Amino acid sequence: MTRSSLLPDRPLEPCALVIFGASGDLTRRKLIPALWNLARQERLPQPFALVGVGRTELDDDGFRDQMSRAVREAGRAGAPDAVARFAGQLCFVRGEYGDAGTYESLKRRLAALDAARGTRGNRCFYCAVPPQVYLDVVEHLGRAGLNCQGAPGCGWSRIIVEKPFGHDYESARRLNRALHRVFAEEQIYRIDHYLGKETVQNILVFRLANSLFEPLWNRRYVDHVQVTAAETVGVEHRAGYYDRSGALRDMVQNHLLQILSVIAMEPPSAFDAESVRVEKLKVLKAVRPLSVGEVDRYAVRGQYAAGTVEGRPVVGYHEEAGVPADSRTETYAAVRLTLDNWRWQGVPFLLRTGKRLRQRASMVALQFRQPPHLIFPADEPLAPSTLTIRIQPEEGISLSFNGKIPGPGVQLGTVRMEFDYASTFGGPAPEAYETLLLDCLRGDATLYASSDWIEKSWELLMPVLEAWSAPSSRRIPRYAAGSWGPREADALLDGGGRGWLQP
User: Fold this and answer.
1) Is the CB of residue 431 less than 8 Å from the CB of residue 237?
2) How many helices (H) does the chain have, and how many strands (E)?
């Protein structure tokens, strides 16, 4: 099921997409392959133009050659003439991001495209650059008048910004204020690629389009909820960025809290940006505030040590190139949250993420309460019924429950019902960036984060960040690469027969 079946498609108006950081890694690996896939499905607006902006010494032909190679490297190239037609919609403006002349050149190029291709003054700006760079971009776009919307001679203007959305609560507020000085909130699209994944989008469909499940989605039937994002890779070439960030900032503040919001939100009055965003923000507002003094009770961190991952030996975090020998940055983070509202009162929400874990997997698991009285004899404790939503790498949903094993007498065993996206609907699901780019071009911000949500997510996690950064904080537990993380994280489950659910 694709999202286009949930809502009538908004009309796609002619436009130009401008990518700052056009010669960078994100553009080459994700954005251009996503746009090419949309193009070959005839889902891009027409007319359409793409303008790359960067500091690399390139002209239009050089940029087209590079992006054509990116399409082929992504393994998605079709007929050469189709790739050539797609590349023909691309052009390049070379310049420094802090130079006003770059934006005057961009403005002239966009005006020429309006005249030659009929893009009607509609612009979408994608900042595929770090925040310290895109603040310069935003300021200069405003000075050049490229942020205008609705004025005579202007079409619409939107801007997409990548994470990280700040480094802490105060920096997130400053970032939002800087954006709002130039663009209205309705023009700003803060992208989180997790929300573009089909399985995450399908959570609401699963709940709200099936009367079988929605009545169970509450404290009366759910014992606890686990959200896991496990990676087998280490820091790779990102040591410089990652050591300043850590797992809590890199994954929990954005991806995992977004998934929590989708899982726990109340049914919105309509499936549109405003209604969905309001309900997601209510979830964060319902999270019980954390205190610095009690962080050890509800948050655990860890660093990976040397070990074996997928059959090969790997070094520990401190031995990675570019990581300081005395680094206290966490590569694993687990947090236990409680929501103080009618639906979820008393239900623990357990979020965990880590690098160099045993298996690459992202999933949500709802473990249901046990029957109040078991009338069947059992040699072992009854396995709880569990609903698991697999986000990656193999998107799907599974439901495990108890059944009778065939034979004399009554013996219980676990039964699993499986739903797999690829086998059911045929072929792989669309890439997240395809969905999110198309939504922005349509003007649909449902799957993008609002400024209020961003600031509230940072506010919730600040006590943990402050406690972990204090000189007096405890030693960081180490866990062997290829394991499921530090044993200290088991304490967050609070007994009661609960255990971390593995993929």
Assistant:
1) no
2) 16, 17
Catalogue the E-assigned strands of 187-235: 188-190, 222-230
Q: Is residue 344 part of a domain?
A: yes
SS3 string, 183-200, reads CCHHHEEECCHHHHCHHH
Q: What tokens does 70 get?
A: 């990116």
Q: What DSSP line would sit under 323-370, residue for residue?
A: --TT----SEEEEEEEB-STTTTT-EEEEEEESSBSS-EEEEEEEEPP
Of 191, 168, 171, give the one whose Cα is nearest residue 19.
191
Cis omega (within 30 of 0) on the bond before 164?
yes
Overall number of domains in the chain: 2
DSSP H or E stretch at residue 418: strand 412-420
DSSP assignment, residue 303? E
Give residues with Cβ within 8 angstroms of 319, minimum separation 6.
306
Token pair recorded at residue 353: 């993420």
Taking residues 52-62, what's their average pLDDT? 95
Asked whether the bond before 47 is cis by omega within 30 degrees of 0, the reply is: yes
Total Cβ atoms within 10 A of residue 278: 16
CA distance 285 to 499: 27
Quick count: other Cβ atoms within 10 Å of Cβ 488? Answer: 17
Mark which of 145, 162, 179 sits at the end of a domain.
Answer: 162
State the sign of the Cα–Cα–Cα–Cα dihedral 201, 204, 210, 212.
positive
Q: Residue 255 catalytic? A: yes
Instruction: Please report the pLDDT score of residue 204 as a whole number.
Output: 87
For residue 124, being part of any structural domain is answered with yes
Spot the catalytic one: 140, 193, 224, 255: 255
Where is the domain boundary, 138, 162, 186?
Answer: 162
Mean pLDDT of the residues in the chain: 91
**Residues 83-102 pLDDT 10s:** 888 999 999 999 999 999 99
Same domain, 318 and 246: yes
Residues spanned by the domain of 358: 197-365+451-492
- For 21, which DSSP code? T
Residue 501 covered by a domain: no
